[in-house]
Records
---
Amino acid sequence: MSDDATDPVTEAFLAHRNLLFTVAYEVLGSAADAEDVLQETWLQWVRAGQGQVRDRRAFLVRITTRQALNRLRTIKRHREAYVGPWLPEPLLTAPDVAEDVELAESVSMALMLVLETLSPTERAVFVLREVFDVGYDEIAAAVDKSPAAVRQIAHRARRHVDARRPRRVVSSYEGRAVLESFRRAVETGDPQALLEVLAPEVVLVSDGGGIKHAALRPVTGAERVARMFAGGMGRFEGTFTTEPTVVNGNPALLVRLDGEIDGVMAISVEDARITGLYYVRNPEKLSHVTSTTPLTLH
């Protein structure tokens, strides 16, 4: 990519880069794949005849969406052979993302997992329409469907997601308070304190990718999850520590073993209790939480 800050082609791309990355990431659930999509988008952008582009934002979103859809159809086949549960790649995000409630929910681990249950086209349409309020005609051009078909796909995807998304989006303050209660309970190994902060139907999903130890199936129920945290940390050799952070626009814990990053644990909260715990231990997914520069997604 050119370093010439006065180059209008480069300036136009950089002006929309955060938006394009977020679109690609929400479609793919992988920051590494999203970065590859942006490289492909850039190459197509510099080859495009700029005089023929009336709406640069729409043109760039269209290229990005098409590239992301092509990649998603490929990686979905690879994910079928993934060892244990698959979780999205966590992103260390800037505080302003957490303050944007709708954006924070859209990139949360909980909603990203719901998006995994959509078809590639449904996912792209949902992201463009519900998260970024892109017009139906513009989406139709991006996914090669008619506007009427896109409206039907959007309605079907919204109904599917609404049936599975959290009932109420909590504030960043409430999320941090619940996370701190959970952190204290884990560090003290107090099973009763854990039960008080975990919802009865809580689900723990851990992703080791076959590289790190992780449960091969989700663990459901407050008592089972509490037992794992109350006694499970002792199974590892070394000292575990946790520190609060913001991942995917929501409160999370950065977990270290003997000072080295072991993983990231994100949470979902409803009615002041944790309903979902998402522990990413796969080291191949942790590069964007070890960065010292949090991402701004919009």
---
Amino acid sequence: MVLDWSIHNGSGSACGRPQRQDDGVGYDALLWLSFGGPEGPDDVMPFLENVTRGRGVPRERLLEVAEHYQHFGGVSPINKLNRDAMAAVEKQLAAAGMALPVHFGNRNWHPMVEDTLASLTAEGAKRVLVFPTSAYGGYSACRQYDEDIERARAAVGPEAPELVKLRQFFDHPLFVSAVADGVRAAHASLGNQPGVRTVFTAHSVPDSADRASGPPAEGGHRYSRQIAEAARLVAAEAGIAEYDVVWQSRSGPPQVPWLEPDIVDHIDALHEAGVPGVVVSPIGFVSDHLEVIWDLDNEAAERAAEHGMAFARAATAGSDPRFAELVVELIREHTHGVEPRKLSPFPAAGCTVNGAPCAIGCCEPAKRPAR
């Protein structure tokens, strides 16, 4: 059975077609691929140096960001959140009778993806599915995970297993419903007060990176358009007629344009317009990692409090039981030919084999400006 997902890559047919073996699964493991985060005070600076290697970020900026981590004891919640989500997925897989172990690998901190892939190779794995912890397209949200896969396979060598990355899921009905319920609960925590504005946030990226996101023939801006579409779907599911889409967590030199407005600036504007409160949904993130709990639960919440505005932050989808169901469903698209479910007209994308782009020229990394 061949599934036409409008996915194109030149590295094989594993995207869109079940790969069955005698066990009915056809894959040896699931690799849970994430960003990584420090798990103690001594990890913070080495972790940040890994994140920014080759980018020329001044040490003063690293020390500033390090303070955010030290505010939480030098521990990012991201690794624990990933392990919790992995355990939920393993439980769902077991319930479905699928013998597919889940292994953890990170880009920037231990367990590093290269080490995890080396272990899988030593165990004899030949074909492995990869779940990247991002729902969207774009360089940072998608193609950089392909680079992680390519780098890890190169580090392991010719015996490395085939790695098939699962597709983007920003418009999957389980993701949309989980985020929508978080928005409803946040409004309820404020007593469903009239006039409270719903604001969706996602990680800002340079304008140039957003212009380059998606295949060139599509005209770019896939990342910001997907965020806008996810916000539309969630708002419709939650019964919200008016909402805003804004950005957070920008970094880099001030002369480089990034997606705007920033969430804190937007709260200022809402206050000037007489809005009594705000519900913020971090729709661009799958879990409550540091950029969510610092930029929203601290900085944005404090700005709202300064203005006397009600504030509630909606939950991310990663801790919702439907998130594990979503991951298993994405897996079953490959193992059992389950029809992909999606709520938007965007083509299903992001499924790649061995790190090859899912389309020619898709999400090419932007050249960094000279400093």
